[in-house]
Amino acid sequence: MLKRQTIRGSKAMALVLAAALLIGCGSSRSLSRHSRQPDAALQQLGYGYGDAPAVAPPSQQGRQRQTPAVSPLVAELQSILADTVLGFSQVGLSVVDVTAGGVLFGHRAQQRMRPASTQKVVTAITALDHLGPAYTFATRLMATAPLEANGTLRGDLYLRGAMDPLLSAADVRRLAAALRQAGVREVRGRLIVDASLKDADEWGWGWCWDDDNPTLTPLLVGGKPQLAVAMQNALRGAGVRVTVPAAGSGTTPAGARELAAVRRPLTEVLQPMMKESDNLCAESVFYQLGPTRDKAAAAIKETLAAAAGAAAGGGAGEGAGGGAGAAGGGAWDGCDTAAYSTGAAGRDLARIVVADGSGLSLYNYHTAASFTRLLAYAAARPDSILNPLLASLPIAATDGTLSRRMAGTAAAGRVRAKTGSVTAVSSLVGYTTQRSTGHLIAFAIINNGVQTMAQGRALQDRICIALSQ
Fold first, then answer.
1. Rounded alpha-carbon distances, angstroms, from residue 453 to 88, 233, 420, 432, 450
2. Inter-CA distances, 122 with 129, 364, 378, 385, Å
3. CB within 8 A of 130, min separation 6: which ones?
């Protein structure tokens, strides 16, 4: 059963310490693949917003809407969006002040677009929301038969695959050694390989046949579907004899007891998934949420719906606007005026399509506003979601896929965000801290139809630098 985090009915109010996002600012920290240390300085955050700028909306009695004052930040973002890249591509942009609680800027924030690898942000937040940061990928050896005093197991030995994308041959040898240490010397039966964690589909929905796609199976070792053979070799090497030489396939019976296991923390898998944009890691996390694409996608939709409900309940989408007004006003364009209703989040949710966990599929669709709602939802849960998420995100000019970007600017060391790149799609989703206010800012930039990745990244960098000032 998936465990849901309790969603509080009232808005949590607290401050964020800017130092949490300034770690490594101006430094060149190397990528730590298995680092699991959270950002301890982060405290619980409050927010409330819809997906349009939080300026008092027109009432239903027909009062004329007043044009909001344009802040320097809004003017700068409008200037950036006047770039020629918009002449031949589409941009969805949503910017939210999480600390103050309100929308700073929106441009086509409700237009659904292909997210590319920023889909991994959705997968990561949902996994932390449903499973929790303490969740582990457990590759286990199990049995129902009794173990005799002489070390003989009179029955089958079950190997339950966990789709651990980081499981190595050394891990498998360690698993076999643990079985031997548990007293097993001989298995009077078969080695049964259990791949029931997920369905039999080895590719994702909407994946291109000529891409370098990972194989989606619970029976992974070294990222390849070779767990059965690796386990047989490891058992022989550990001195455990299996009387039936050929491995079979099946499902571990209910009530089977664990004899040995190798466990991998979710937070460890999130490191390469986010820092390096590892697609296999993302799909492995996705299928911890459900055995089929539909069930895993339903878990994501549940978290997105919770985030939408929290945003609508915060009041900015209904015209509360106090926090956002304090943050400097907002702006809108023709595509964003509909966001002044509490139904905007629901309409966004209906537009979203979850095809996979990695963003490889051409069938994924999100909106910029759905991303910032989700980021604010994460920020309101610092211990269970935000801290481990921030620890996994690439840091501008420091590590991961952002290691060479925004160096020497206000965004260096401040921006923590996930990149996304597939043909004609360039995106960036994450957080930064404003140097002038110390506020935590959530942003989503999705650019579809770009001719080169460099054009999309240049636009993203300019926006991030402006947000970090």
1. 14, 45, 10, 22, 7
2. 10, 11, 10, 12
3. 2, 3, 4, 5, 289, 299, 302, 303
Residue-wise pLDDT for 287-338, tens only, equals 999 999 999 999 999 999 999 888 776 533 222 222 332 233 333 333 343 3
Task: Answer for the pair 464, 428: CB distance below 8 angstroms, yes or no.
Answer: yes
CA distance 318 to 315: 5
In this prediction the pTM is 0.83
Amino acid at 26: G
Measure the CA–CA gap between 235 and 122, rounded to whole angstroms. 39
Candidates 321, 363, 327, 371; CA nearest to 345 is 371
The amino acid sitting at 193 is: V
pLDDT at 98: 95
User: How far is residue 197's CA from residue 216's CA, in Å, rounded to a whole number?
Assistant: 11
Other beta carbons within 10 angstroms of residue 424's beta carbon come to 16
- What is the model's pLDDT at position 213? 92
Q: What is the CA radius of gyration of the chain?
A: 24
What tokens does 294 get?
């539909």
pLDDT for position 65: 47
Q: Please give the Cα distance from 449 to 463 (Å, whole number).
A: 18
Torsion of CA 365, 369, 371, 373, to 10 degrees: -140
Q: For the chain, which ranges sit under pLDDT 70?
A: 1-69, 313-343
Q: What is the pLDDT of residue 467?
A: 98
Indicate the residue type of 254.
A
Distance CA 302, CA 2 (A): 11
Q: Which residues contact 86 (CB under 8 A, 6 or more apart)?
A: none
Can you list the positions of beta strands (E) in 398-460? 416-422, 425-433, 440-448
